[in-house]
Amino acid sequence: MITNPPWEIVKPNAKEFFQEHSAVVTKNKMTIKEFEKEQDKLLVDEAVRDLWLAYLSTFAHQSAWFRAAPQFKFQSAVVNGKKTGSDINLYKLFVEQCANLLRDGGECGIVIPSGIYTDLGAKGLRDLLFNQNQVTGLFCFENREEIFEGVHRSFKFVVLTFAKGGSTIQFPAAFMRHKVAELATFPAQMGLQLPIELIRRLSPDSHSVMEFKSAIDMQIAEKMLKFPLLGETIEGTWNLRLTNEFHMTNDSHLFKTEPGAGRLPLYEGKHFHQFTADHGQPKYWLNENEARSDLITARIKQAKKLITASTVSAEVKPEMMQLDYESYRLAFRDVSASTNERTFIGTILSPNRFCPHTVSLENVFFDSIKNDKIIYNCTNINHRERIFLIAVLNSFVLDYLFRQRVTSHVSFFFVYNMPIPRLTATDPAFLPIVHRAAQLICITPEFDELAAAVGLESHRDGVNDANERAQLRAELDGLIAHLYGLTDDEFAHILATFPLVDEAVIAATLAAYRNYVHNENRL
DNA sequence: GTCACCCCATACATCTGGCT
DNA sequence: AGCCAGATGTATGGGGTGAC
């Protein structure tokens, strides 16, 4: 069976529909408000209205059927007790239907998006392929040279082959290829055998496949795996919870285009970089009271839920609640790509800034119930640990792992699947990392409190000089490579996977790593 | 007790605009 | 012309809520 199925999703697109019926509607140049106004006008026309309703009505039953049909039971899977939710992708339906239609031993070759091996929503299909079929090849292209015209150049797609029956122990794979001709030599002369058992250990939640390009990649991943995954809740040490704050569209009623009294800035991903803040002027501001009341409402809801689920009868006291934006917090950009100079870009934000959903945030304060009492503002992680964590996440070593998973978004589940040592102040390797990262972060007065909390005098202990900062960053990266027990060869390999990073930076980082081989405990 | 509807958290065959 | 960094709209599962 050989097929190149459609890659569309079963979902209405209002702008696409109304574009057909209006000279004014364009797909991406209109704001939501302009579009809604135009949509209302168009719907006054009864003919347009009927067509629109007919269009909308074609989705509900298709959707319901695909979700309920027994032959499509692998479209969704359970991750951490929750069913994965995602769009109905035609490519996903085709994969499952191909598996259904094959006779035992029958073979299938199919051209589909890379989501099959990366997306959370395709976990069920991966399990189907790994457990009830033998995957015989996963050859992955990046569309950089426009193999498919009209498809975005950064889009990735795969040629997947499998045979029905049995199960997969390992399969040959190649990633980020650009030439169709290379398919001819795969898997005989190129590609790597990926063991399913390793995939499961590396991504226990999602069973997503990392883009290993050589044996040393597998060796490094194996080595890093000895540390617990960030999403694993471990008693007696720090843990991380992720969240989003405001949605660019759904919460746009809160956004003002001018600063003013009582207003706080909306801080977007482009406004920070690794260990730095304040790149460029904000575009929106929010009235603190309005924004606060929205956030408190959500928080009260969560607290009530906790109370309902417990045997406690308590009044929720919103005035007790501290909100995340009032604290220093970890933040990282959602939109990124593995082909960018760097993929994971995060920092610690100072208080009194709000963020849109394209900035993923640490959930600092939450409420919980202990000993029949509601405890407000519980925290999972202190300032030193928070700085340690961002230092590790921003390192070349972790970024290298991110780049083997990320396509265009740094989703929560990628972060939760990172192996990260949960070091604390009692570990000798902890403070040298925290101290350096704090010097990089605490460079303006807003960070004075954070500086004081982690052992600096004030932001004046921070480092502003570009050369000194580069040196600190190199040392951090070197220390973190040692933290994972990486060898010289392994770390050099990791650094070589960043083609857009300045060579001087790479050289300084490697030098810093080598320096610590001989000075293990130097502070 | 059941159903219809709403809210929340999350994901994404894209598209635009700035920069070099 | 190519790279990079978002902006945006909408569906999903899942849980809550209120009407009947």
Question: What can you see in these coordinates?
Answer:
By secondary structure, this protein is an alpha+beta fold. The protein folds into three domains: 2-213, Rossmann fold (3-Layer(aba) Sandwich), CATH 3.40.50; 223-233 and 383-523, no CATH class; 241-379, no CATH class. The chain has helices at 14-19, 32-44, 46-68, 90-101, 115-118, 123-132, 196-202, 215-224, 288-309, 383-393, 396-403, 412-416, 430-441, 448-453, 466-483, 488-495, 503-518; strands spanning 2-3, 78-79, 82-83, 107-113, 133-142, 156-164, 170-177, 192-195, 242-243, 255-256, 263-265, 285-287, 329-333, 346-349, 359-362, 366-370, 373-378. The strands form five sheets. The protein has a six-stranded mixed sheet with strand order 1-4-6-5-7-8. Helix 10 (383-393) packs across helix 13 and helix 13 (430-441) runs antiparallel to helix 15. The protein is globular, with a radius of gyration of 25 Å. The chain binds a DNA duplex (20 and 20 nucleotides) through helix 3, strand 3 and helix 9. Keywords: Methyltransferase, S-adenosyl-L-methionine, Transferase. InterPro entries: MethylTrfase_TaqI-like_dom (IPR011639), N4_N6_ade-DNA_methylase (IPR050953), SAM-dependent_MTases_sf (IPR029063). One of its GO terms (molecular function) is site-specific DNA-methyltransferase (adenine-specific) activity. It catalyses: a 2'-deoxyadenosine in DNA + S-adenosyl-L-methionine = an N(6)-methyl-2'-deoxyadenosine in DNA + S-adenosyl-L-homocysteine + H(+).
